[in-house]
Specification:
CATH superfamily: Gcn5-related N-acetyltransferase (GNAT)
Number of strands: 7
CATH topology: Aminopeptidase
Largest sheet: 7 strands, mixed
Strand order of the largest sheet: 1-2-3-4-5-7-6
Structural class: alpha+beta
Order of helices and strands: HEHHHEEEHEHEE
CATH class: Alpha Beta
Number of domains: 1
Distance between the termini: 48 Å
CATH architecture: 3-Layer(aba) Sandwich
């Protein structure tokens, strides 16, 4: 078989596989009435990847149920909070969010921080994290009030760091000993999305 034809067949197969995967994964916002599904995913994420987040499962366990409802409600407004979920056959398999932490500060309210990227272990390495990030960034780019998108990531999260770099984030600073877990300190990288945001 001719090499060019073989390459074309392989390229087409790969493209079709990607398209099939993307169709089976829905990126959605979640109705606030389904807050418990979000809470369960979040608590699982905090136990599964404790170094990936700046808080512990205990921190989120004590939050009242209306906290989860109001967070999803705020995310529907897409003003200071954004929250997206990956869903396959009705099951939440991943999430990512963004928050305008300084929404009430005139000189810093243009900065949005991406938070809480997580994909269930059995659904990793399928492009879901990348899809979540791209969809979120697309939403943020439509908001003319956003001038800067940043995130914090623990040094141990190599896969996440690689993903962020592939979609245009660069490390702009380090917070030495930014996370303390089991009496051990880990550095935290601050990353910034380069290029025009809005």
């Amino acid at each position: 078989m001719n090499k060019l034809l073989l390459f074309s067949i392989l390229l087409f197969s790969s493209y079709t596989f990607s398209m099939e995967n993307e169709k089976s994964v829905e990126i959605i916002t979640l109705n606030p009435a389904l807050w418990e599904e979000y809470k369960n995913l979040r608590l699982y994420a905090l136990t599964d990847e404790p170094l990936a987040f700046g808080m512990s499962e205990k921190d989120d366990m004590i939050k009242p149920n209306d906290h989860w409802y109001h967070l999803l409600y705020a995310a529907q407004q897409e003003k200071d909070v954004w929250k997206l979920f990956a869903q396959i056959d009705g099951q939440l398999v991943g999430t990512v969010g963004a928050v305008r932490m300084w929404h009430d500060q005139e000189y810093m309210k243009h900065i949005v921080t991406i938070v809480g990227l997580y994909v269930l272990p059995e659904f990793r390495k399928k492009g879901i994290g990348t899809l979540l990030m791209k969809k979120l960034i697309d939403k943020l780019k439509k908001d003319s009030t956003i001038g800067q998108v940043i995130l914090l990531v623990t040094e141990t999260q190599k896969t996440a760091i690689n993903l962020y770099e592939k979609i245009g984030f660069n490390v702009t600073g380090i917070i030495p000993r930014g996370i303390k877990f089991d009496e051990q300190y880990y550095d935290t990288f601050m990353m910034r999305l380069f290029g025009k945001v809005s």
